[in-house]
Design brief:
Elements: E1 4-9, H1 20-29, E2 34-37, H2 46-53, E3 59-70, E4 73-80, H3 87-113, H4 121-127, H5 135-144, H6 151-159, H7 174-183, E5 187-190, H8 193-196, H9 202-207, E6 212-216, H10 222-234, E7 238-241, E8 260-261, H11 262-273
Parallel strand pairs: 1-2, 2-3, 5-6, 6-7
Antiparallel strand pairs: 1-8, 3-4, 4-5
The chain binds adenosine monophosphate, zinc ion and fe (iii) ion (2 copies).
């Protein structure tokens, strides 16, 4: 059987619900040979996943999904195979996590101003293992307290960009994220371009050192995938893919929903070492 990989997975250290051990269990159960942990703005899940996979035929790649913004548009930048234990990286991620915590407090204040007073920062921070607090944590609390009926409603009514409790995140440009990952010996891959409609920026990102495009993604049509495959070829980028599994926090996907041939992992590694 050909080996397969899922290179986009979140744990409860960001806005997923699974522990690294549960992620590894599901990956083994699904017959995957390689996974990458790609939490938002934290590397805290990586070591436990590597540890849990020890002794199994499962390779765990270090990864991250960095939040960036350009001209008011959110761009998620995946990083792979970088020196994830670097002290200056940990320090920089700590700053991003602190900024996320401050933002969470502001969103809670905005909800208070809208008459929703029974959500506290302490309960969100305490209930989550998360180092990187995000809107999905707040959405889950709004659902739990029956203020809205679903996560989608929480975003539509309160948390989506432009909605009344939205607060933008710290600003980091995609170029800065690319430099950070490359500076740590890794490769930067543009996450789910089919979701974010940032094609116009791709040439500039390539100029800044972008190394790949994530073209295999849940619910992406063949046509769209082929379109990005063409863009990757044109710009000499590697292609990757993954499920973007978040456990219970995103029920439409799961570990192994998207699996890519291991050949692509080898190409990713070659791009890093080359
Ligand atoms: P944050 O990092 O706090 O800005 O939250 C971003 C995350 O929220 C994304 O990674 C998505 O998982 C989720 N998200 C963003 N927009 C929506 C939406 N309209 N409905 C549900 N989830 C969303
Ligand atoms: Zn997420
Ligand atoms: Fe993303
Ligand atoms: Fe993701």
């Amino acid at each position: 059987m050909t080996k397969s990989a899922d290179l986009h997975i979140h744990t409860h250290y960001s806005d997923g619900t699974m522990s690294p051990q549960e992620v590894v269990r599901d990956a083994l159960h699904g017959g995957l040979n390689c996974i990458a942990i790609t939490d938002h703005d934290t590397v805290d899940g990586i070591s436990a996943a590597i540890e849990a996979a020890r002794g199994h035929d499962l390779e765990v790649l270090p990864g991250i999904e960095l939040s960036t913004e350009i001209n008011g548009k959110d761009i998620h930048m995946l990083g792979y195979l970088f020196n994830w234990q670097d002290a200056s990286l940990i320090e920089q991620l700590q700053k991003m996590q602190n900024a996320r915590a401050e933002r969470m407090k502001k969103m809670i204040q905005k909800l208070e101003a809208l008459g929703i007073r029974d959500i506290s920062f302490e309960e969100i921070n305490g209930s989550a293992k998360a180092k990187a607090l995000g809107r999905p944590h707040l959405a889950a609390a709004l659902v739990e307290k029956r203020i809205v009926g679903s996560v989608k409603a929480a975003f539509d009514k309160f948390l989506a960009e432009g909605a009344p409790a939205y607060v933008p995140k710290f600003k980091q440009t995609p170029g800065e994220a690319i430099r950070l990952i490359r500076g740590l010996g890794g490769i930067a891959v543009l996450a789910h371009p089919m979701l974010t409609n940032v094609d116009e920026f791709i040439p500039a990102l390539v100029e800044a050192g972008l190394g790949g495009l994530e073209i295999y993604y849940p619910n992406c049509s063949d046509n769209v995938m082929r379109f990005y495959e063409g863009l990757a070829r044109k710009h000499h980028l590697v292609v990757t893919g993954g499920s973007d599994a978040h456990g219970e926090a995103k029920r439409h996907t799961f570990i192994g929903k998207v699996r890519i041939p291991y050949d692509l992992v080898e190409k990713l590694k070659q791009a890093v070492s080359g």
